[in-house]
Amino acid sequence: xxxxxxQQLAQTLRRQIDAQVWLPGDKLPSLRESCKQSGLxxxxxxxxxxxxxxxxxxxxxxxxxxxxxxRQPVAAPNAxxxxxxxxxxxxxxxxxxxxxxxxxxxxxxFGSAFPDPTLFPQPRLARSLASAVRRMSPHSAIANLxxxxxxxxxxxxxxxxxxxxxxxxxxxxxxxxxxxxxxxxLQVVTQPGDWVAIESPAFYGVLQAIERRKLKAVAIPMDSQxxxxxxxxxxxxxxxxIKACWLMSNFQNPLGCTMSVQKKQRLVSILQAHQVVLxxxxxxxxxxxxxxxxxxxxxxxxxxxxxxxxxxxxxxxxGFRVGWVAAGKYAERIQRLQxxxxxxxxxxxxxxxxxxxxxxxxxQHLRRLRRQLELRQIVMxxxxxxxxxxxxxxxxxxxxxxxxxDLGEGVSAAKIYQQALAQxxxxxxxxxxxxxxxxxxxxxxxxxxVWDARAEKALKTLxxxxxxxKIANSRQ
Length: 476
Prior knowledge:
Layout: H1 5-18, H2 31-38, H3 42-54, E1 58-61, E2 65-68, E3 84-86, H4 92-101, E4 108-109, H5 122-135, H6 140-143, H7 150-162, E5 172-175, H8 177-189, E6 195-200, H9 204-213, E7 216-223, E8 227-228, H10 230-239, E9 242-247, H11 261-273, E10 277-281, E11 306-311, E12 323-326, H12 331-339, H13 347-359, H14 362-387, E13 393-394, E14 402-406, H15 413-422, E15 425-426, E16 428-429, E17 442-446, H16 453-474
Parallel strand pairs: 4-15, 6-7, 6-9, 9-10, 10-11
Antiparallel strand pairs: 1-2, 3-7, 5-12, 7-8, 11-12, 13-14, 14-17, 16-17
Helix pairs in contact: 1-3, 5-13, 8-9, 8-12, 14-16
């Protein structure tokens, strides 16, 4: 990939900052001074400064210039823990109560699992939906039964092809959102009482699905930057008769980490050696910030044994509830299960998305969406660093729209959740994401919403609640 002049200047400045030529709080040369020094145009220098600002390395002061931002504490990697096996999971009631409390439109939605709905092209989607409904034939409901609308499946297959991944339209099954694709995938490869390997912390949806299916779980510890501990996974595979592994290799919810390509390859090889089916939850892959979309585990030569699940809900149309599973050799069995449960995904929504993708502009929307999500995450992360008490660590994902906060031992995230809710603020406590009591002092925050005075005040309130909890603990 060709590096532009503004990117070269940004890299030079970043090396200088890393080498402490410029210290936090130092003012950089003005745009015009930098133009004279570098021989570059004003626009090129401005782009370099703005790039570093978007990465949280610089910040701008109106009528003053650009300054080096305070050094940001990065969440320390999680210490590797022993495996936790749960023969029975009972989390759904607690999760339901937390999610229900966050539905109030007057609540500041830091605890929401959904992206800001104003980020999506609602007028264009509405036009596509209206057009699709007008063109629906009397036989559309039958024609679009599982595996789903042919044009939409072909569009999805083309996006796999753009990444060099061979997925045919015939192995794609359109579902009612990613949760149905994940649930059907789990159902097709397990029976009640089977063991499943999951992440810890994990997306709470997997805990609910395992509880609903009456399965047993082995929680594999996660590193906050590198993802699943593969040595612990191998230990689990030698210890328990695991049938399936459900994980997120890209922008994992809630940690936000992404596995390296080498680690992804090792993970697939380990599971293949033990003949364990892989269910890949990849709903955030389009929301990357740096360069290129990360490859899914489906890139593997063993792709026919991998059920790759994703959706349009996080990147285009949250309310449409249209997802899919690239199910490989399990595609027909997935279709049979779907016909016995939801019958099919909404036909008008399938047709609307096919129309939207046919009209073009999807990638343009994604580029704009990624830019907005990245900027909002930077602003909120910097605000957390500047307002939360010492000892708080915060993740630094390269995609998605969540931050994971470790408030420090002794701080009860459940108590912070209750106190914040009483003041009109929702958060997602760490207890939502694990079957064990390992993340009692952690929070997940949604960064996708616009940063305004209301959000800033809410974050300061959270910081004050955490500080008060720390002070109270220190007096005991």
